[in-house]
Amino acid sequence: MKNTKKQTKHLIICWVILIFASGCEDFLTQTDPTSFTMNNYYTQPEHAESAVNAIYQDLRAVRGGGFNGAAWMMTEFQTGLANTELGQADNSIIIRNLQNNSDNGYGNSYWNSHYQGIANANVAIENIPNVEMNEDQKNRLLGEARFLRALYYYNLVRLFGEIPLVLEPINLNSDDFYPEQASIADIYDAIVADLIWSETSGLPSIDENGKVSLGATKSLLSSVYLTMAGFPLNGGSTYYELARDKAEEVMISDDYYLFDSYADLRSNETKNIGEHIFMVQFDRNISNHNGLQYVLIPYNQGVSLYSAETGGIFAQREFVESYEEGDKRTEEKQFYYRSFTTVADRSVTIDDLGGWYIYKWMDPEAHVTTAMSDLNWPELRYAEILLIYAEAANEVDGPTGAAYEAVNAVRTRAELPDLSGLSQEEFREAIWKERFHELSFENKTWYDMVRLRKALNTNTGEFEDYVGHTFVYGPTLQERELLFPIPANEIRNNENLTQNPGY
Amino acid sequence: MKKEYYIKAIASQPAAFLVIQLLFCSIALGQENTVTGIVTDAESGGELPGVNITVQGTTIGATTDLDGVYSLEVPSLDDTLIFSYVGYETQEVAIGGRTTVNVSLGWAAIERDDLVVVGYGVMQRSDMTGSVGSISAEDIQDRSVGNVEQQLSGRIAGVDVAINSGRPGGTPNIRIRGSTSVSNTNDPLYVVDGVMLNVESLQRGTHAISSIDPGSIESIEVLKDASATAIYGARGANGVVLITTKKGNQEGGRITYDNNVSISQASKKIDVLNSEEFLMVEEIAYENSSKFDPEGNYVDPLTKRNDPRLFDESGNPLYDTDWQDVAFRNAVSHNHNLSFAGGDDNTSYGVYLGYRDEEGVMVESWLNRYSARFVLDSEINDWLTAGGSISYNNQTEKELEGWSMRMLYESLPIIPVKYPDGTWAGNEDYPGMEGGPNQRRVSEENIYNLDTQNSLANIYTNIFFSEKLDLRTMIAGNIINQRVNRYSGRTLPYLSRGAEGIASINNLRRNNYQFENLLNYRTQVEEHSLTALLGQSIQTANSFSAYSESQGFMDDYFLYNNLGVGSNPRPGGSSASEYTLASFFSRVNYNYNQKYLLTVTGRVDGSSKFGIENRYAFFPSAAAAWTVSEEEFLQESSSVSDLKLRFSWGQTGNSEISNYQGDAGLGSYTSIFGGSRAVGVGVSRLANPDLRWEVNTQVDFGLEVGFFENRIALEADIYRRVSDDMLLNRPVPRTSGYATVTQNIGSMENRGVELALTTFNINTPDYFWTTNFNVSLNKNEVLSLHGGSDIVQGATIIREGLPVNTFYGYDHLGTWNSDETDAAAIYNRLPGDIKYRDVDGDGAINQRDRVPLGNGMADAFGSLINTVSYKNVELMVDIQFSVGNNIMWAAKHSTEDRQGIANSLGSVLNAWTPDNQDTPIAQFRPVSAGYDTNTDSHREYDGSFIRGRNLSLSYNFSPRILNTINLSSLRVYAQAQNFFTSTSFPGYDPEVSTSGGQFTQGYAQYFEYPKPRVFMLGTSISL
């Protein structure tokens, strides 16, 4: 008995010592089997590719829509050309009434998603060079990453003006953890540097899968140069020339062309080809684009299979009336629609839905049969490149034949007569107006207004100064509306930031 | 020796003795000498009927008659008589040759539960220095409920249990002495027979404790102050609930069977519009459209009332459906517990079986649970005891999802459930409506089952080296398998019509294992008594989850049982995680002569959750108590029978953050190329290598006092606990690419007072009346946050100086009246629109005008429980109260702020009109004409309430009857639970939280499941 006791005692003492001593550290070290960490990733070519894939995701963040609207509407409502019947989308309404403030969720959404995209680009650009892999593939991946970083910054600098320019990955101890604002010129320099790098990275001229292509890079660069030529940098003719040349490179590549029918703009068959130079990608099974459809249909009129019929955004009547007589784009179910069949009975049509709803991005099949939309969103399309060319060429040399040819290609599709015999001045305004009408509700118009500091008076058809322009429904644009407010949260979390004037 | 220790525990229960004596007293043997006498009350001198008299060392006995007189044949006049009587001190009197022995009995001191389960041990209550509340087996028996949390409700001061849903498997919100953490869980740690339950929340916000059968519980203890909880170190910050389950029976075989049947009904209906009112509101709204949106395009509602399914030829509605009547039912539930226990001095065992079948008061919701447990304890030899238990619970709940509750409010009264031809109707059948599925249809066709298997097992050995030293070793596990099965029908509008049926399965497995060694030492040297514990514990917890979904079914037949037939399989997913905890702990109890008590504990915890720099933490505590009543100067006091002062200080931790938070984890991203998914890997979590534990420091001062042999007993505690190094997901500049970083910043304080008063108003064998009253006051305050910046989470705000769980919104001032046209115009509003306070005076109402509103936590809460019995009949009345808990009724967004696109609350009939301008409700208008809807003071209510929690009437059959039918006990009972609720809150119930968030107590969106009133009949039999 005594012996047993003693043995047991010894056994237990050994046991306890074993437990106490046997590498508590090992026992207490756990690694996450579900996710990689920054330290153990970026070793394989597949890792490099995945790092670049991640950058694309945030392009989707500002798209879509629902009962609370969507971030992309922010620039549309600040043109004074859009209307809404979605009473609860407060963010839309305060912008439309020019009562915006820095709490607006749309601004947050742009800011947060774009800086996340930039952070992913920064991580990719820093780590991919160290991955052992095919150099050509490596360069192409870096080219994609730089294009996307440039695109995010291009949006941010136009929306918010002077913003932090972060070009390296950030951790808790980084100097740039609380960054200061960079000058607008520095930001554009970084954008141009990235795009020029990307241009020579060996990207394919087009990419039918929706990745960044050489055509996209040149197109974006021409858009950036056009903006740099105008406000606020006022780069002038040097930049018009650069913009014209980049647009021309896209035009002579013969990789892109205008669709014959506007229906192809909203078709699943024509994604990433033809007129579509670069798009935000959607797919019903992976990430659908139903949100966009929710906001394009009138408020609860029973026309769509979707449960959310929000009336989130539609055209201001006066804007549609500003199109030229006979413009095909204003015909029923081209860019806009006023009638639709009912869910209860598709043989019954509501003839007047009460507004000019947007048909440009409408997916009728989704509303009528599937309640599921795949449509991509166009970031850059060939019609815009033609108009950039025409505008820039006119600024450099006046209305050249090639400039007429470019704009008339767009007008011909709209079944409008060719422009001819205009002075440089007249041609300039004709192009502006063409841009307003062709690129409506495409997140282009407000950027044009700010770069030109002009607004379209829909009553007179004339352009007038941006500051002081009165919307048809009352509010008047002030100086502060040349920018959006930096989100209040960001100002709160980073004492080094200064809010834009007037907010 | 150690055997005695355990036997004492059982024998010391007076009930057990009483039963034995009762059985024996009626049998008389021998007839040699007769002793007679009279027994009186020492205090009053009155005669005592029913006193038991036995002859020491024999089974010979008698009972006094109504006059207190007895007569007894004794073997010898040298014997000793034992006089015993419930509520009185037992007396032994030597006969000493007399034939008349008169005795007067004094009151017995009322003993409080002698043994109390504490962390890693058992203690005499008199030796305790900490604050621990107990729930006894009898308490549990008096309230037949479906889960452990409901048993906890209102029993113990300082334990706030909010039963937030009437759903059969609804998970209550439990806070012990308030909230301590912003980011981590505030749920207590549950320990069942030494096995720590899984702490992380499970699917649908359920908790491991919720699926455990309360029928097999012997007692529950709640550890509140740091002296009691510090032994649990990093897991003790939110208090610890110790559950002791029923064991075997050392006195031989015993079979018990308890069952009950209940009928539940919704305790309230909410006032919504009927058909006539609904249509009228729609018409008035249309008339007002020209005022609020002159340019808009509106359809006269009269022109759309031509659907012959819904309207007669003159446009009058055919139906006036009360959707609450459609959804509610008298729900029948039953519960069964069967047990077999047995054993002898050396070995005891028990088998406990349970079955519960509960119908929800809303049609199509139910829960069932099967549970089984086996327990074995055996003394193998004189130095080794071993045993263990294993239990398995299988619970399935058919839940209703949000739409079923939302459509209680919003279904149109003009719509029937089904048309005469059997097809479903729906809000969408009436043009211009927002839609939303048919309440009954969505309840039937959106199937949502939560299936939980919860297994608990432990095996232990106790090795006794000597009388003073033993070692206890335990291996234990809690394994949870949970599955959410869902199928939403092919044709169900708004959920799955587009997808042609959605089936999904979400599997979760959590394993928690622990291995512990406890070395116990105890010694007594003269008046010094010492016990010491040295322990070691390692724990691991891992989880694995997998999800799959498929859409596009050609038939509803398959439900979620064959995802393979779906034409559109969706991407699946899975994830895994694990953490480990290694700990060493010790506790020393010292007492001098039962007067001066001292407890010191310490625990070192190491956790894999924290960065290498801060992997270990030490949690100390110390407590002292002075049993003043043991001092000579109080020994002779006739009024004060017990007086003890306690003081404790200690620290505990909260480490319940997600795993791997210290690392720079990468997240997965989804990109699409060519219609295919391309996986991206990118930034996700900002690394913080300095991450460490939250530390809770608590000071507690307690007073326990008993008067008149403890017929009045008061326990009072006052405490202050401060959480420091609070883990916060603090927002960082988004320019970093990250939203937040988890850091130890911020502190929060809880201060409170707890009072528990127990009085034995009447305490005689036939008449008994006891009152329990407890009340708890807790004040929570956030002391500091990162840089002082607010954390706004939906409708609540966390701000320095305010309690957490404070609602945040606009100050609703009513409506603009006709005289204020110009003032309203500044805000772009018209008379009849809602008027908010422009806090910053900038001429616009925006987020900067939001202000802190009320708080969802109660200022004070408690219970008043009266138990009255006469002979074998017992009546218990259990009243619950809560003061100062506010409610944010967010459901008013869709049911009051806007009308005409779904049904509304009856309160909208008080809307603004030129003749009714003094009203908080805006003038009717079509929704697209614009309206204001915000979290505001008008949606806030004082949710204070008084509730009749339980009314229980029971009858215990007397041993005499039981003997004739060979039963050892038989009890029948009836209960009425939630038999009244008095509150000014117009929603279903003032205990409400619908979002499941950390600080959303009192936040009520649509999704509240009404709380039932339950009428129950039950029987308990044992043989």
What's the layout of helices and strands?
The complex is a heterodimer of chains A (503) and B (1023).
Chain A: H1 2-21, H2 24-27, H3 45-57, H4 73-77, E1 82-83, H5 90-96, H6 105-127, H7 135-160, H8 184-199, H9 214-229, H10 237-253, E2 276-280, H11 290-296, E3 314-315, H12 317-321, E4 336-337, E5 340-341, E6 349-350, E7 356-358, H13 364-370, E8 377-381, H14 382-397, H15 401-413, H16 424-438, H17 445-452, E9 454-456, E10 463-465, H18 488-493
Antiparallel strand pairs in A: 1-3, 2-8, 3-7, 4-7, 5-6, 9-10
Chain B: H1 2-11, H2 14-25, E1 33-41, E2 52-55, E3 61-63, E4 69-74, E5 80-84, E6 91-94, E7 103-105, E8 115-118, E9 121-124, E10 132-135, H3 137-141, H4 148-152, E11 159-162, E12 173-176, E13 189-192, E14 195-196, E15 217-223, H5 226-229, E16 240-245, E17 254-266, H6 275-292, H7 323-327, E18 331-343, E19 347-359, E20 366-381, E21 384-398, H8 402-410, H9 439-445, E22 446-464, E23 469-488, E24 502-525, E25 528-551, E26 568-592, E27 596-607, E28 616-627, H10 632-635, E29 640-654, E30 666-673, E31 676-683, E32 694-707, E33 712-724, E34 727-731, E35 740-744, E36 747-763, E37 767-784, E38 791-793, E39 796-798, E40 806-809, E41 812-815, H11 821-826, E42 834-836, E43 851-855, E44 860-870, E45 873-883, E46 886-889, H12 892-895, E47 940-942, E48 945-956, H13 959-964, E49 969-983, E50 1003-1004, E51 1012-1022
Parallel strand pairs in B: 1-7, 13-16, 46-50
Antiparallel strand pairs in B: 1-4, 2-3, 2-5, 5-6, 8-9, 10-15, 11-12, 13-14, 15-16, 17-18, 17-51, 18-19, 19-20, 20-21, 21-22, 22-23, 23-24, 24-25, 25-26, 26-27, 27-28, 28-29, 29-32, 30-31, 32-33, 33-36, 34-35, 36-37, 37-44, 38-39, 39-40, 40-43, 41-42, 44-45, 45-48, 46-47, 48-49, 49-51
